[in-house]
Amino acid sequence: MEGTVKCSANYLPLTPISFLERSAVVYRDRVSVVHGDLKFTWSETRERCVRLASALHHLGISRHDVVTVLAPNIPAMYELHFGVPMAGAVLCALNIRHDSAMVSLLLKHSGAKFIFVDYQFLHVAKAALEILLKTSSKIPQLVVIFDHARSSSRVDDNMTLTKENLEYESFLASGRPDFEIIRPHNEWEPISLNYTSGTTSSPKGVVCSHRGAYLNSLAVVLLNEMPSMPVYLWTVPMFHCNGWCLTWGVAAQGGINVCLRNVTAKGIFECIARHRVTHMSGAPTVLNMIINAPSDDRKPLPGKVVVTTGGASPPPMVLFKMEELGFNVTHAYGLTETYGPATVCTWKPDWNSLPHDAQAKIKARQGLQHLGMEDIDIKDPETMQSVPPDAKTRGEVMFRGNTIMNGYLRDSKATEDAFKGGWFRSGDLGVKHPDGYIELKDRSKDIIISGGENISSIEVESVIYSHPAVLEAAVVGRPDDYWGETPCAFVQLKDGCNASAHEIIKYCRDHLPHYMAPRTVVFEDLPKTSTGKIQKLILRRKAKEMGSLTTTSKL
Amino acid sequence: MEGTVKCSANYLPLTPISFLERSAVVYRDRVSVVHGDLKFTWSETRERCVRLASALHHLGISRHDVVTVLAPNIPAMYELHFGVPMAGAVLCALNIRHDSAMVSLLLKHSGAKFIFVDYQFLHVAKAALEILLKTSSKIPQLVVIFDHARSSSRVDDNMTLTKENLEYESFLASGRPDFEIIRPHNEWEPISLNYTSGTTSSPKGVVCSHRGAYLNSLAVVLLNEMPSMPVYLWTVPMFHCNGWCLTWGVAAQGGINVCLRNVTAKGIFECIARHRVTHMSGAPTVLNMIINAPSDDRKPLPGKVVVTTGGASPPPMVLFKMEELGFNVTHAYGLTETYGPATVCTWKPDWNSLPHDAQAKIKARQGLQHLGMEDIDIKDPETMQSVPPDAKTRGEVMFRGNTIMNGYLRDSKATEDAFKGGWFRSGDLGVKHPDGYIELKDRSKDIIISGGENISSIEVESVIYSHPAVLEAAVVGRPDDYWGETPCAFVQLKDGCNASAHEIIKYCRDHLPHYMAPRTVVFEDLPKTSTGKIQKLILRRKAKEMGSLTTTSKL
User: β-strand A190-195 against A205-209: which pairing, if any?
Assistant: First the structure.
């Protein structure tokens, strides 16, 4: 329109960097990060991040260079989420459960210029660099992070600093506090690179933009009903989708980041009581850990704690028990490609009058897109037709919006496949309820096809979870001569509890159609990714290795 | 980065239209708008807005055409905030206090194609169109809105519908519910045009973009600590900066819009009790109305009500009394050019232990930029140097960010002046406190310069407000032979209260440096804009007309 103009007064690229800049003024003297007895304020955190950016810049890091980090939820990990983008670079936080071979592969694929490593993972990083040296002459600069909240951190075996390795605090000290931070020219520029956790396929490098990160951070703050100055407990790994975007989101609201190196029930209860935690997040496994905590490890909650869970549907029993303890559970769902949370099962007040198990069934739904995501649909992946909202017809969950990744790094083919038809194809299968809410019916590979019938492993697991002796369960398909596949349950019992395979099977037959009940039950500790997802890939392999069941008729 | 792509799956222009689209699914059966006994749900509101867009499109409205409206806070006014942008057009909501001459001028300046008019203002619109006809052959199409919540609405004198005039409900009915809405190609495109209220100069047309409206809506939701499904009482006129962006913000959170044709204390208390209102906003005059309500008009609050106030600093007494009644007051500040609220006086928990009047002093500060605004500063308008944070040095309040207007319609010169130096110059004067919070020390013209000393009229008013007999006060400069200017107070006393000019002057001298005390006190009802701002321009004129005071020495 005539008379208007786009200029530096009215147009700036969206970036989470702005959250820190603002909080360093508004909340300047309030606590930003706490880790054991170590505490920083927002103005200190900003200064540390600026120094970090300056030091990176000084050592030649330039726009869009990749900086990796291998660390648990410690203050340095938080600072890297701002310091790296403030140098114009791209943060790539690696999963701390990776072995050296995988770390080496990801360093190579990302073309990383730096690797920041927590002292506990130094041996992994060093071995990865050695592998890398065999095929490349350029290896990333290593910076070791000691944990100043732990006196033991310096005496670890791996602690010997060679002269070519830098140490985090000295590195920071070498940076200038008045460094002019490097902002994106364009909000579409990358801020982070997150490798998919690879439970079902080889890792892909998800490129996230400043714009997407900004918008998803605000959406996640709203989804968590997070007011200003929340106290957030870091039980979700920051390397998992940048802590579901709450690394940036907590800065937006000037909250307190309570760091936690090891996620244990005792640690969670202690932090909640000590810091008066208001918000936390975690996979259902984390909730499970909480509700099954021995009484010695528990402490009463100082107030309501809002917990956002995702990564898998929370089983009804887990929900009940969490609410009984005083937690307020919200269920969200998303993928690395959606910057973490993309949907939320928005709770309607009318549902409070429903019976408890009906409530739990609704809460286990993935719901609808959050405020930052434009659109969600469940479509036939071939025809792109929407499925009817009949709670029965399955289709693929698809998204459109500004909180969808820019694409997969150096994999145009995978990017193209993911965006075919103008929607992001999640690979997850689900149904649409008459009220529009979606419900996952399994990751594509988690469906067990038995005698031509699709069996949702989630449904079977949900029943097994409700058995009083069961701590955790995962169900996969086992080859079967007659039926093709039959459900095989891996079950971990609670300490001091007993149940036989026969009992579990009977329990399932009492609560499910017979064909859905497992034919095999294995008792063991379940393998998990560091983000708490049960590694079904491993279980699927195990089930395969058991060999075919020979059955000739229906159970 | 290699492998990435920008496409319809991962990039969509930001627009508040998305809020309605999402809420029509997530909150489909929940109440969206309530007005008397009339109620709509979010899916109904969406359908009505789509029909409205379709009907406009059918009558030839195309991208960036201007559609005006002259109406109080009724459902149609709310619907126009979505229906007009969904036709690709630009909404221009006019101040209902304007006379026909001003309406005619704004219709001409904006090049409006439509004018939607509430039945109560039909005579104003008709007279405006008649004026317009004298100089132009093209006049906007008129659509009359009857108030279905009022049986009297159809029997008004002005209700005779001529055949060339349309009626709102029939107009909607003529639109298609399956109309494909017209989204912006680019988020920079205009969504609304808001004429500045013109307390100090001739109205200018502020052009707002879809991007800015989206971002400011989220920022205002966060600033109000508004969770999902709030109940919002419309005491701020929607024609004022699109209801401080909460027309769109309440849709984002799936809240209930409680409409209110006339803002009275009785109406406010009734609505709060009946609808269990959680949030509302208003100029300090609205708060004043609440605290001075006769006891018959009051009802107990059903719960905490969050009130955001702005437009002028809330006087301490008003704050105390509001809090006593159970309201939780947040102070925000902004201008039409900043889409309404731009700053918020974020309340720190440490301040709760301060004495009441220290708290009120802090709360009267404008604070710092909200989450959607990039930057705020107080600068010397000549040198562009920041003033020191000494709570004393004055400068001009300046902003930068995505929630600053695109510019002034057809006034490149004014746009250029406003953005000179790469910042938006607010024209307001203020100081910066040591903690970074800003405090207005008067709109530029509100400073009284007396014997070379600057007197802040706000400071003088603040003292007068604390006098027990005073309902409202405004202080302007009156010409003075000796001092140049001296403060002249216009005071409205509470019903049944008495105070002499002498008493008021003495009270000020007891609480202020003597030179700041008014030399003239006039008792009268204060003239106000419809947004509750006291019209100082009129008072300044009156003070001038009184003629010069003849004083020869200090009081």
Answer: antiparallel
Q: How far is B512 from chain A (nearest CA, A)?
A: 30
A451-545, what's its fold? GMP Synthetase; Chain A, domain 3 (3.30.300)
| C-alpha of A373 from chain center | 17
Place of tokens 């989220």: B218
**What is the DSSP track for B452-506?**
TEEEEHHHHHHHHHTSTTEEEEEEEEEEETTTEEEEEEEEEEPTT----HHHHHH
Tell me which residue in A27, A419, A435 faces B5 most closely, judged by beta carbons: A419
Query: Strands A305-309, A470-480: parallel, antiparallel or unpaired by DSSP?
Result: unpaired
Token pair 């001075």 is at which residue?
Answer: B292
**Given an 8 Å threshold on Cβ–Cβ distance, is B400 in contact with A8?**
yes
Q: CA angle B324-B327-B330, nearest 5°?
A: 115
- Max intra-chain CA distance, chain B: 80
Which of chain A's residues have a Cβ under 8 Å away from the Cβ of B191?
A: none
B contacts of A409 (beta carbons < 8 Å)? 1-4
Please write down the long-range contacts of B59-65, taking CB distance under 8 Å and 24 or more positions apart. B59/B114, B59/B141, B60/B113, B61/B87, B61/B88, B61/B89, B61/B113, B61/B114, B62/B88, B62/B89, B63/B88, B63/B89, B63/B182, B63/B189, B64/A1, B64/B88, B64/B89, B64/B90, B64/B189, B64/B190, B65/B89, B65/B90, B65/B113
| DSSP string of A15-38, one letter each residue | -THHHHHHHHHHTTTSEEEEETTE
Q: Both tokens of residue B374? A: 């990039």
- Assign domain B12-32+40-210 to a CATH class: alpha beta
pLDDT tens-place string over residues B450-504:
776 767 788 889 889 889 899 999 999 998 877 778 999 999 998 889 999 999 9
Name the residue facing A424 among B10, B225, B410 (closest C-beta): B10
The token pair at A67 is 């900086």
Q: Which of B354, B346, B360, B304 is nearest to B328 (CA)?
A: B304
CATH 3.30.380.10 given to domain A13-260 = no
Distance of alpha carbon B257 from alpha carbon B264, whole angstroms:
17
Q: Do A407 and B4 touch (CB under 8 A)?
A: yes
With 0-12 / 13-18 / 19 or more C-beta atoms within 10 angstroms meaning exposed / middle / buried, residue A533 is middle
CA dist A346 and A543 (Å) reads 37
Domain residue extents for chain A: 13-260, 451-545
Asked whether the beta carbons of B11 and A402 are under 8 A apart, the reply is yes
Give the integer Cα–Cα distance in Å for A454 and A551: 18
Q: Per mean pLDDT, which range of A144-153, B210-219, B491-500 is the poorest?
A: A144-153
CA distance B374 to B298: 41
Q: Compute CA B453 distance to the chain's CA centroid, rounded to the nearest angstrom.
A: 32
Closest CA relative to residue B517, chosen from B486, B484, B492: B486
- A552: pLDDT strictly greater than 80: no
Which residue in the set A25, A409, A410 is minimally distant from B436, CB to CB? Answer: A25
Are A314 and A284 spatial neighbours (Cβ–Cβ below 8 Å)?
yes
Contacts of B472 (CB under 8 A, 6+ apart): B285, B288, B465, B491, B492, B526, B534
Element (H, E) at A328: strand A327-335
Sorted by sequence, the CB contacts under 8 Å of residue B399 that are 6+ apart come out as: A9, B338, B342, B369, B373, B374, B375, B376, B423, B424, B426
Spatial neighbors of A178 by CB under 8 A, at least 6 apart, are A50
Cα separation of A260 and B153, whole Å?
A: 63
Confidence of residue B555 (pLDDT cuts 50, 70, 90): very low
B26: closest chain A residue by CA: A368
Q: Rounded CA gap, B76 and B176, in Å?
A: 17
Which residues in chain B touch residue A401, judged by CB atoms under 8 angstroms apart? 10, 12
